[in-house]
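Shipment paperwork, digital attachment
Item: protein structure file
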Amino acid sequence: MKTETIAPPEKETMSIGELARRIGLTTRTVRYYEEMGLLVGVTRGTNGRRIYTEEDLYQLRLIRRGKLLLGLSLAEMKELVEVFRQTGTERSVIQRSIEILTSHLDEVEDKLKKLESYRRLLAAEIKRVKGLL
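Attachment content:
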């Protein structure tokens, strides 16, 4: 009886163009994120081209979500990546995310107070100017 060796399935890989298309970014943006250290673990094939996996796609989705939906800066995103690299735990990333998001919320609350004050000022000025008619 012949024994057969079964190799583990290889991860599905994709080119930078395919990755960029699937996530809705330009290839230049993907390269920029990699240069900044936001996209980790990218390997290169024997031909020197970048090889991306589903994990890279997942990382880019997190970056887009943090940037577009939550308003995180790329520096803040890089900080979260570094926290994960240093600790290796999602818990530490979550804790730092809470701190960053809380800071953003505080800024929004402050802006809302200023906008409300400005709204009252505008309403009072409109009332004053209408009285001049």
